[in-house]
């Protein structure tokens, strides 16, 4: 302990009190947390890109320059997530996001083929069907002079997309957000945020006595009940298909999604295939992974899409450029659906999406538990420290991104990316524990944004400087993102 304290205290950081450390400065509401962390970093760590704080007796380092981020994220030894992720475990168990060690290695290997581009191609139809429902839903906002919050619309759309692609099951959140399952997804998310924000809800033994725990148990019952039922039914359907038997009428729609003329497979089918009848993955293992995809694959993409639409809504010239690119790709057949090839050729839109993720990375902080000493910028960071990688601040480094607050998609033109430090821009994290779903996410974002922009012109109502950001698991604006929409005539 002495050694640890000695090594940690060599790293620059604010003065701290005995026993509580810097807990008073850092235990603030989530709308202030990001600002607090950035303030600390600017004062104490600006030169080295690294500083330390103590939360009670626990040491933390904050890192925010490419050179200090790289040793942590590139290492195959420091792959354990921090305590903050454990609040997700009642729902997600130890799936790919939360697991560590040998379990994570094995799962990552098993799951990687599920994200092959050939498989992603099959999901384009889902992206487009749900985007078209979204465009339709937005019609009701056409005459809304004051503007409306785009976030909830997009979140329901991305939840529909991930449920259909992960489980092969429609939850119709866009049509009806009042179902038991959809409500449970949102409620458990808010319980996890609450636990992260409030120090007294963190120890399990205390949390167990709260009303929130009861509500969490109820959500977990609903969520696991639904996933278990889908897994069971899917197994039976697979069996029927193998035997070429007729499908019961209540499963006809689902059967045609999975095995109809298009033979679209959900991630779940791939997991069932990989499970080898339970020898490699048990039903519970499969449930953990499906739930993980649903959690990690809907809020992240919804934030990314909402921010990109909002930012383009503030830059009419850039929005017009995206629109021109879409028109060029569609040519004379303006009514046709986008294909995978179309989405891949939307290069300017891709730059806009990347720039939006630079300014507002869906995951603003990535945390690691360091179980071994590690050298970062001439300092030995001792085992037992939690490392917080501040993507939000890393992406605002003026040396890599001059005029960092400016929305400038040209930063991502191929000629401008050349020579950039590989750890300077990491919205999907980097190294061995990077996001397994990043190609899926990019395609989904393109499909949804291009579908909206071919139907509407978007105008931002809120001003960026007036927004309050919540530094939670996902970066959100406290009061939503207001935009106005106008139907396109050409
Ligand atoms: C714009 C959208 C997305 C962003 C910005 C994003 C970002 C990230 C980041 C930063 C991590 C690392 C987290 C950490 O180390 O703590 C991560 C991990 C992960 N993401 Fe994503 N993600 C997105 C979409 C998706 C989608 C669509 C899926 C699934 C379909 C997905 C599945 C996962 C999984 C399973 C992990 C854990 C990987 C591992 O630890 O091996 N993500 N994501």
Explain the overall architecture.
It is a single chain. With 490 residues, the protein is an alpha+beta fold. It is built from 20 helices and eleven strands. The relative contact order is 0.16. About 1% of the residues have low confidence. Bound molecules: protoporphyrin IX containing FE. The site of protoporphyrin IX containing FE has 23 residues, from helix 14 and helix 20. Its cofactor is heme. It is found in: Endoplasmic reticulum membrane; Microsome membrane. Keywords: Endoplasmic reticulum, Heme, Iron, Membrane, Metal-binding, Microsome, Monooxygenase, Oxidoreductase, Signal. It comes from Cryptotermes secundus.
Distance between the termini: 68 Å
CATH superfamily: Cytochrome P450
Helix content: 40-55%
Count of domain modules: 1
Strand order of the largest sheet: 1-2-7-4
Family: Belongs to the cytochrome P450 family.
Organism: Cryptotermes secundus
Pfam families: p450
Cofactor: heme
Give a brief description.
The chain is of the alpha+beta class and 490 residues long. 51% of the residues lie in helices and 10% in strands. The strands form four sheets. Strands 1-2-7-4 form a four-stranded mixed beta sheet, with helices on both faces. A three-stranded antiparallel beta sheet has the order 3-11-8. Strands 5-6 form a two-stranded antiparallel sheet.
